[in-house]
Sequence to fold (128 residues):
Amino acid sequence: MATALKLLILSLFFFAVFSQGTNGQSCGASSIEVQTINTGATVGGVDMVFEVEVKNLCPCAVRNVRLDGGGFMTTVDVDPSVFRSDDGAVYLVNGGEPIASMGVVSFRYAWDHFFQMTPRSLDVDGQC
Fold:
């Protein structure tokens, strides 16, 4: 009986640890890190080229990652399978496909200033 109780407690502990994000929070929008980096390159001598890295900090794979685009515009094409408008100012990352734990999806755009992009939503991919 004591062994069964210990196994139950240990199982609950592992479930609690592995179902939480990096800060002890469940995997939600805060589990996505968005970094925008000025590459130093320009397009047409005017627009700066920025690289955006979207990183999954959740211990689980996530899908349907959406970002608020902050008025996003670009003078160069962005691969729509990587980043595309989903609903006006909301953008779908990686075509909604899974991003592995600690995985990064990146793309480049060009404009005269950077756009602040913030995580809006995601779905945990299957059981975690």
Remarks:
- Confidence is low (pLDDT under 50) at residues 10-25.
- The two ends are 28 Å apart (CA to CA).
- The helical segments are 2-18.
